[in-house]
Amino acid sequence: MADQENPDAANDASAKTILASAMAQVSDSIDAHFDAVLTVPDDARARLVEAMRHAAIGGGKRLRPLLVVASCDLFHVDRQSALRIGTAIEAIHVYSLVHDDLPCMDDDDMRRGKPTVHKAFDEATAVLAGDALHALAFEILADERTHHDPFVRCELVAELARASGQSGMAGGQMMDLAAESASFDLATVTRLQQMKTGALIAFCVEAGAIMGKLSPEGRAPLRGYARDIGLAFQIADDILDVEGDEARAGKALHKDAAAGKETFVSVMGLARAREQAHALVDQAIGHLAGFGREADLLRAIARFVIERDR
Amino acid sequence: MADQENPDAANDASAKTILASAMAQVSDSIDAHFDAVLTVPDDARARLVEAMRHAAIGGGKRLRPLLVVASCDLFHVDRQSALRIGTAIEAIHVYSLVHDDLPCMDDDDMRRGKPTVHKAFDEATAVLAGDALHALAFEILADERTHHDPFVRCELVAELARASGQSGMAGGQMMDLAAESASFDLATVTRLQQMKTGALIAFCVEAGAIMGKLSPEGRAPLRGYARDIGLAFQIADDILDVEGDEARAGKALHKDAAAGKETFVSVMGLARAREQAHALVDQAIGHLAGFGREADLLRAIARFVIERDR
């Protein structure tokens, strides 16, 4: 009732409904896709596939597949194809978490509320499960069910490889390791995060444009949106690391400060970081001004990125 | 002079010349390709790219790229494209060695006569360098310089992903880890090796057929050749592990017996293993009967596979 008298609140409630419903659908579909491609074989490889399932199925916000679905919606890409790309990107994201959690990297025991793969299995299995999920991502993208045009599939493969390799995610993780022993300024922390998490998020948003065969110039607003929510996401992550609840997050928090790692919060302070995250979300939504209701899900995701508690 | 009176010896000498010259050319080109794509950046990622260079440049037999070049020669594929595919496959091979050498896997200190990546750098850098080489392989394959037809590039990506993932190399490595605590029969050891090393070798040989757009039926002889030399290669590796010279091999040997791991030698005995390797090479060459001189390099590689000392 109150919502009818307050259009902002009504919009807000409707955005939350759109988001909650899309999130639930995407989460279920991603689990189903992983379940279908990760059949446990009846031989000594069983342990490998079980470890891949442990890492990939159940849990996680599925933010990346959700972004893929939202950007594909803009260009009327069919949902099944969008979910295949979402599964491929999630496979890359999950492999990076499995390797990142290893004792020689961040040494984490819990992830998404479950023991990490090397805890539930062992380190060697975790290395291999990550590697096999990495290969799986490209196998999914190159399959003709992802898009009938092989040119589009090749572009997806090339962009995902770039976003996850030495100039993208892996490069950012390397800088992140160096951050423990170096003192980075705001520009360097920003560049690090644009590689570590931003590149993959940008690919999620760009996936719709690639599938819709949008011209490179037409992609500019989506690029702007992706850059802004990528940074906002990471600032929110840094804030959560300071303020969050471990049980809700399903993983250990307060690790950055303990490791002496520079983050947006350590460089800008909590208040300015929060302000900056909000400004980035407004700016991200501004990039979508040329779109109508079909971009409502992208707008709702932008707000969610800084409102989430895990 | 003696060679003119003995055509077999002359053929043998000529095969060795063909092989030596191709090997030298391929090794130089693969190093040059890696050098070109692995430019060390002027920031905290430098360590990552240096680790990738340490692993990828210099050393190794480059058997896989050599097979790609030899199979591409059959179908008049241009050399630069063949070498791009060779570089991509070598990137996958090298990433698997880097991860395989980690303390939680085989725990090796030396590889190709140099300290392993985690020894020369550290474990976290080794994990990330392997991951970044993995992504690099797909980035190279999806690039239009590899083949003008995106359909061909997609097929290469899909086949490489399959050959290196859970049903190929990674699956075989998992079985290999299990081999330390299980007692495998010959059939299981064979299946393990067909996945662990055979799948990637098969892809090398098939690459020429994919690039030459050969029909699936036309590929049967190459598949047979690949299967046979893949097994012969692994038997030769197991023999080398027992009999080889560590300085020549550039890595630690005699590890299988120490780990209580079943190998072709432990299951068949040294004499029968040697016999079997020779029979497989003869059979591999038999598959090439339909080809003329253009398959001489493939024939020479088949013989080399069991005559090498590293």
Automatic annotation (TrEMBL), chains A, B:
What cellular-component terms does GO give this entry?
cytoplasm
In Gene Ontology terms, what is one molecular function of this protein? Answer: metal ion binding
Q: Does the keyword Transferase apply?
A: yes
* Gene Ontology BP terms: terpenoid biosynthetic process
Instruction: State the InterPro entries in the record.
Output: Isoprenoid_synthase_dom_sf, Polyprenyl_synt, Polyprenyl_synt_CS, Prenyl_diphosphate_synthase
State the Pfam families in the record. polyprenyl_synt
Cofactor(s) needed by this chain:
Mg(2+)
Question: Please, which domain of life does this record's source organism belong to?
Answer: Bacteria
Keywords per UniProt? Isoprene biosynthesis, Magnesium, Metal-binding, Transferase
Q: Which PROSITE patterns match?
A: POLYPRENYL_SYNTHASE_1, POLYPRENYL_SYNTHASE_2
Membership in a protein family: Belongs to the FPP/GGPP synthase family.
| Name recorded for this polypeptide | Polyprenyl synthetase family protein
